[in-house]
Amino acid sequence: MLVPFSLVRPLLFSMDPEKAHHVTFSALKKLNRMELLKHFVPQTVSDPVSVMGIRFPNRVGLAAGLDKDAAYISELGLLGFGFLEVGTVTPKPQPGNPQPRLFRLPEHEALINRLGFNNHGLDNLIENVKRSSFSGVLGINIGKNAVTPVENAADDYLQALEAVYPYATYITVNISSPNTKNLRDLQGGDSLDQLLSQLKDRQKKLSDLHGLYKPMALKIAPDLTLEEIDAIADRLSHYGFDGVIATNTTIDKTAVASHKLGAEQGGLSGAPVREKSLQVIERLYSRLGDAIPIIGVGGITSGAHAVEKIRAGAKLVQIYTGLIYRGPDLVEECAATIEHNCKVPGMLARKR
Fold first, then answer.
1. 30-51, pLDDT tens digit by residue?
2. 50 is catalytic
3. Which residue ranges make up each domain of the chain?
4. Hey, which CATH number is domain 44-343, 3.90.226.10, 3.20.20.70, 3.30.2310.20, 1.10.760.10?
5. Taking the complete model, does pTM exceed 0.90, yes or no?
6. Nearest residue to 325 via CA among 281, 275, 277, 272
7. 8 A C-beta contact, residue 176 and residue 183
8. Which of 177, 207, 237, 302 is catalytic?
């Protein structure tokens, strides 16, 4: 960056979180238009790896949620990420929940959000992707509209899958946000079976239509029981899903109960979700092994935390809240720490 993030952060943190978000991305866009941004960002660490049949420049990606409309992928693509995931996008535009809906808890390196899939819809996201200069690995995260009854959720997911398929490197199916009513009900039982079955059937048809197979991953919550994690893992294997992202935000606020904002409704992300995410990754890996790749996300605020996710069984990692607290240098740190540890024999052996 033009100035160290540690100097910029106090100014950004003096603003409402959503305003700071818009100010930051407006500045990045202006710098990029002036062709200056590329000169003031961390280098992209070269640590190529093949996951889900895709070659990633390195193992560190941007988690969905920061750029819901793919409006800033040209800028984000210069920050050293091995891949970007945009969305969650819904078929129709929707404003999300009333403001305020995003809260910082700096003492805990955490955020609470109840944004509610605020986005401008499929058509807008696709136009942004087509206009961008980004040519890297792009995941598109899809969800259902808030007004769509959960029993009709598959209709929204199928519509979104069909629309984004030509423009995504891979697609993520988000059934784990706590901010859309009853969405998490899709994580189990007949609802999950029906959804996964229909999505895989449509994926095959789209693959045949376009002559190109696009992998599909499922994003799950950190608040599942061990039995629920096992059931999801078994269904992912049964239906032939290509990946699983663990995890979304947590509804468990125990770790921040003493904070003045700790009782705010919404999903908690950042450092407090790190252990919960690790436990889900380890359980998934014990069930799936290397058959279905795991993307680890949740509480990564250092390179050591990124390696921790890999050791737990993840093949790739994603960051979001850590980026808010640490800035772009975190991307390079995580990618370089993983790359270094991959070269040291035994360092990436999983914990037993």
1. 999 998 888 778 789 999 999 9
2. no
3. 44-343
4. 3.20.20.70
5. yes
6. 272
7. yes
8. 177
